[in-house]
Amino acid sequence: MSTTSVETDLGVERQIRKLARKSAFRGWSLMAPLYVLLMLVIVLPELWAFYLSFTDYSVGQVASRVGLQNYNEVLQDSEFWYSALRTLIFAAVAVALEVAVGLSLACILNKKLLLRGLFIAALIAPIAMSQAVTSAIWSYLLDFNVGPLNYLTGILGLGRHQWLSSTATVLVVVALVEFWAGMPHVLIMLYPVRASLPEELYEAAELDGADGHQIFRRITMPLMAPAVLIAMIFRIIITMRAFGVIWILTRGGPLNASEILSIYLYKIGFSYFEFGKAAAIAWLILLLTALVASFYIFRLYAVSFSEKR
Question: Which of 49, 59, 187, 230 is deepest in the core (most CB within 10 A)?
């Protein structure tokens, strides 16, 4: 190879590297405002809350460091553990129903149905509603005197019920409201995945005599397992920090029966103005959410690894 051709190759390589650096710089310059915004609205407040969790900061007083005192007081408070248990029950009921119903609807709506687009639009309509609107709708539906649900149970001879005022039912009821509001998110995540599965697999299974249950268990569920786990992870993270709907409907009552951790945190921070302790609770909620979500993240990695093998 001549010296001229070598120099030409080196020159071309330098030009490619120069263009690559320019492209990378352009990309980072476009992404920089987003990273700065994330730092300002997410990272810095989290770091500030972490600092406050080691202080006795409250309104109108100078914060002083107290070490792990806030964490010790919270962990020794029985109401924290009751709230944590209610949070796990609330999230388990809501997310389990969201995933089960969302997956079922994703499979059903994948079939050729009359007015399928209209059904999909109606099912995802709750996404467009704010938490205040959702709470107002369900407050009316569950009202003891004029609520349609109590009117229906009265006609059926089941009597009227204090759905939001009974300690025996309130936690399950607010979990069902959360399910109604959250299920469309799962449907939106799973419907495109089901639609992307090759129909040849289903046609071959039907020719082999497989019924609907066998097709779902042997084909649909294994292929959709990663998407289902991702949907579960997202919904667990969101549901375990739910606040608006429960606060508007019950304010954590009656007798703290629907007081999950986010409500408990709000009361400590904005009713008793113990912001240091509230910050400690926030970080404990983050830890609990991470522990619960990590189980499904490991399951997701296990499923992905088995597929690669």
Answer: 187
If you search the block for the tokens 């949907």, which residue do you land on? 231
Answer yes or no: is pLDDT of 133 > 80: yes
Q: Are residues 136 and 192 in the same domain?
A: yes
Please report, for residues 250, 277, 283, the alpha-carbon distance to residue 58 in angstroms, rounded to integers and kept in the order given. 27, 9, 18
In a domain, 62, yes or no: no
Query: Counting Cβ atoms within 10 Å, is residue 42 exposed (0-12), middle (13-18) or buried (19+)?
Result: exposed
Q: Which domain holds residue 281?
A: 70-306
Q: Which of 270, 277, 99 is nearest to 178 (CA)?
A: 99
What size, in residues, is the chain?
Answer: 309
Same domain for 140 and 19, yes or no, is: no
Question: What are 232-261's pLDDT values in tens digits?
Answer: 999 999 999 999 999 999 999 999 999 999
Judgement on whether residues 21 and 132 belong to the same structural domain of the protein: no
What is the rounded CA–CA span in Å between residue 116 and residue 107? 12
Q: CA dist 301 to 226, 289, 309, Å? A: 9, 18, 12
How many folded domains does the chain comprise?
2
Residue 65 lies in a domain: no
Per-residue CA distances from 145 to 3, 142, 148, 200, 249 (Å): 94, 9, 9, 54, 16
What is the reported pLDDT for 207?
Answer: 87
